[in-house]
Protein: Iron-containing alcohol dehydrogenase
Organism: Chryseobacterium formosus
Amino acid sequence: MLNFEFKNPTKILFGKGEIAKISTEVPKDAKVLMIYGGGSIKNNGVYDQVKEALKDHNLQEFGGVPANPEYEVLVDALNFIKENNITYLLAVGGGSVIDGVKFLSAAANYDGEPWEILKKPVRTFEGEGMPFGTILTLPATGSEMNSGYVISRRETNEKLSSGGPGLFPQFSVLDPEVIKSIPKNQIANGIADAYTHVLEQYTTAPSSADLQERIAESILISLQNASPKVMSDDFDYDAAGNFMWCCTMALNGLIQKGVITDWAVHAMGHELTAYYGIDHARTLAVIAPSHYRYNFETKKGKLAQYAERVWGITEGNVEEKAEQAIVKMEEFFHSLNIQTKLSDYTQDFNGTAERIEKAFTERNWLGLGENKNLTPKDAFKIVEMSY
Ligand code: NZQ
Ligand code: ZN
């Protein structure tokens, strides 16, 4: 097991009715800005619960953060924060709103041009960001319990990430009831995103970190078990709760400790969202099968372990099990109505692989993946395989 440090300071408030407790989590003397997305919280009762809980606080609001949070909208929010001397941020939404709030937390106390934070990127250390809490309305990203974020800039077709230990939420409320109002395509996205988060940290090389590997496998199995229940029209509180906690646990830092991690699927996937606006999770389902087939030799040991321990495949040699694992993964995405070829999403895909190769080269991303040896030319080939 590799050396590691682990600190995750986010307090989780899990369960039905927990939103009410933010009245004591948000400091009484704070000037609070509640930030939300396109308005789903106004239709499902979450907005009303927040307003009720914070009725004795100094509370203002900023709505309209779009999916794949847009830099220009966030700059408007940043100006609002500065003009109104806001001291505390409250994200109420999915990964996009939470990521937007993390960017604002970092930018509020940053002196330079805000885009530099993503372009360079600039990390935010403890005490440097504006404090914030979150109320999660869409299980998927794990942003509610990690310190990373991803921001899009449509003007330049860029989607870039940053983060730092100063950007953990102080608290996050996880009420499984919020799942009732989520459209099925977004639930599917959440499952696929969390599932791929585990794979990015797991599908590398066999390691001696037995506990991390078995926690990762348990998250995959639990997501598989919860999926048909949360995709069904009948609301199942326990399935919703399991799904929600799996998503958080998939990317709160725990399973990546002491092991090597990949994240090349996300790097390529973000480009597909930037160019075509394809939902984040679906870009991962497009890239992952090609990525695992392209890097089969280095990943086959772990793929075979995934086949055995997660899918119960006992027949065949390592190569056969590893290939079956990729097929099982594809079938799982298909069971969620998520397609796994780029051509399922756009007919305008010619040139995408070249564009990604060029973008990675320009950004000096010359060695991605767990062994830091995946070149822009390799990315070209993987993306081309995914057409
Ligand atoms: O904007 P509203 O009206 O709220 O609607 C949203 C949005 O249209 C809707 N929604 C959310 N909760 C709902 C709901 N609709 C009904 N009922 C509810 N309870 O769902 C739509 C999608 O929301 P969004 O926040 O965009 O989805 P998600 O949570 O999947 O976040 C995606 C973003 O997170 C980034 C992605 O790249 C993407 O930009 N990621 C962030 C990560 C992180 N910070 O650790 C890691 C991930 O890999 C990912 O990259
Ligand atoms: Zn993701």
Observations:
- The radius of gyration is 20 Å.
- The chain has a mean pLDDT of 97.
- Residues 141, 193, 196-197, 266, 280 surround zinc ion (ligand 2) (CB under 6 Å).
